[in-house]
Amino acid sequence: MTERTIADLPASGAATRLHILPSMLDGSSKSVTVGQVVDLAKSEIVGGAPEWLDTLDEIAAAINDDDNLAATLTAQISTKADSDDVDIPNLISKFEPQDADLWRIWDSTGLIGERFKTLSFANFKAWLAKIPRIIMSNAVTASGAAIDFTAIPAGVNRVKLKVAGLSTNGADSYRIQLGTSSGFETSGYLGASSVIASGVSVINDTAGFPLSIGSAAATNHGVINLERLSGNQWVVSGMLARSDNTVVAHLAGSKTLAGLLDRVRLTTSGGANVFDAGTVAISWEY
Questions:
Q1: Within its chain, how far is the Cα of 78 from the centroid?
Q2: 273 and 190, same structural domain?
Q3: By CB count within 10 A, which of 7, 138, 208, 258 is most buried?
């Protein structure tokens, strides 16, 4: 193709890719085509934009043809929860389901408001409340006639009692009792505990969930699981095994409380024996 300068262009008519423009860098006769100029300009405008956002039409579609995008984004951002208003670590324990649509929000001062699951933020909170959370308390050294774990928060669905190297100074069976803000309940426990040694024996205890230990100074290890069945009804299952002898004790039962569970006690059936060794810990799950 023969190169031409601006002077060679026709006086009228649209330019084509065959027309030539001087580079105008140093006044030399070096020239570029109109197509090259357009391609260079397009390259500078597009830059590193992806193929699906390298035209004005694609950009407009991406922002929903909003001619006031900044104001729209500002308005949407203003609806978000402030960090001071959302205490994520303590959020879940402050919700209590009332029915299919209503969640009540609680804090240390009581009821502070209501949110409905039909609202997007409330839906988010309802979803958060369904996520299992496990809270672990500090392990304690076993001592005294009873080991009490109190201040278990409302809304807990599972409680786990764990023991290692646990023993007492007597032969009374262990007894696990549940309680509410009114205190520990001492009746209405259903179920039994079986002990497997040289033979099998079974015991019942309506004053608590029993676990037979066999003898004084028996060293026990294991886990007792409590799960909320519905309302304030709880079921229990667990097992302890002795490390000083070939003895295993199993437990299963249920108990309906008069209110919300907020405490668990580990004691003995006679109440006179005391714990003299071992470690006990509790955890709960929402």
A1: 26
A2: yes
A3: 208
Q: Which alpha helices (DSSP H) does the chain contain, by range?
A: 34-46, 56-62, 69-77, 88-91, 120-129
Contact predicate 172/193, CB 8 Å: no
In a domain, 1, yes or no: no
Q: How many residues are recorded in the chain?
A: 286
User: CB-based burial of residue 252 (10 Å sphere; 0-12 exposed, 13-18 middle, 19+ buried)?
Assistant: middle
Residues 42 and 155 in one domain: no
- Of 15-19, 99-103, 116-120, the one with minimum mean pLDDT is 116-120
| Whether residue 141 sits in one domain with residue 124 | no
The domain containing residue 26 runs over which residues?
A: 6-76
Do 42 and 160 reside in the same domain of the chain? Answer: no
pLDDT (tens digit per residue) in 74-112:
777 776 655 444 444 444 444 444 554 455 544 444 444
Q: Identify the bridge partners of residue 164 per DSSP, sorted by sequence position.
A: 279
Question: Is residue 270 a part of any domain in this protein?
Answer: yes
